Amino acid sequence: MWEKFVSKRSAVLAACLSGLTFSSAFAAWAPTKPIEIIVPAGAGGASDQMARMMQAAIQNNKLSPTPVVVTLKGGANGGEGLMDMLASAGDPYKFVISNSAIYTLPLANKLPFDWRKLTPVSILAFDNFVLWVNAEAPYKTAQEFIDAAKKEPAGAYKLGGTGSKREDHILSSAIENITGVKFSYIPYKSGGEAATQLVGDHIKVNVNNPSENIAVWRAGQVRPLCVFDKEVMNYDAKVTTDMSWKDIPTCASQGIDFQWIMLRGVFLPPNVTPDQTAFYQDMLGKLVETNEFKEYLEKQALKPSGLKGAEMVKFLEQDEALYKDLMTKFGFVAN
Question: Of 231, 254, 277, which marks where a domain is finished?
Fold first, then answer.
């Protein structure tokens, strides 16, 4: 059963990362008042950082005739922002940047939300997940870390992550399932908090995205052991004096054969018009060609994506099914 989850996810991701590009078709509609980017997360997190970058790139490159503002709505683990979008049917002056929470929140909390009621626009990128330990820890490889954890009583090692029954928690359960190690999972409000706790040696390990740990990695306070992908990250500029993102080995090569990446997608409210959707697809198609976006991808070690339209919907349907399978397996689905 477990092998089915892994192979199915790999096939889905391979098909969806096959070089699709945005169209730049002319959009008949254009905004006449400010556009609002809804961020269903707290300040300083990866979604907030992406929204601020998009705001600056859109305005610097004159991709919109009107200003762009960012609004944080992270209440209820992001449910506030998602429900706000559902309540904004027909409003083309706001869009949300969301991740896999569009699946996890409804499944784990019975949130009355279905992403199909929104208008999918595009997936801009995918986030990687990395296994991190404190820089003072003796482990140089993921295998050394797992071997050490196996020698300790169940739950002795604390693994910190963002939220409960979400991406980090699911990944920690997958690691347990593959390796036989039992961690004590500690949920935090953000990846930044998980990073701080790892630096302080209050937890043994976290599975933060690159953007959430880059500052403390550059400062020499944490060490990356492996990335949960089938291939190494394609960025070879040095982050520390001796390592780039490309130097981090895959977890599969370290005995943890699991691929786990997270979408960064844009959605409009329900019931907007095709012309309005086309405007945003065209705007975002130009956005991904800007220097700001390209530099952001490399700085955050994100995987680029050009999914939109039917291809985006297909990916979302398959990805949601995988999340449901895994969350059911690990007992994270609300009854």
Answer: 254
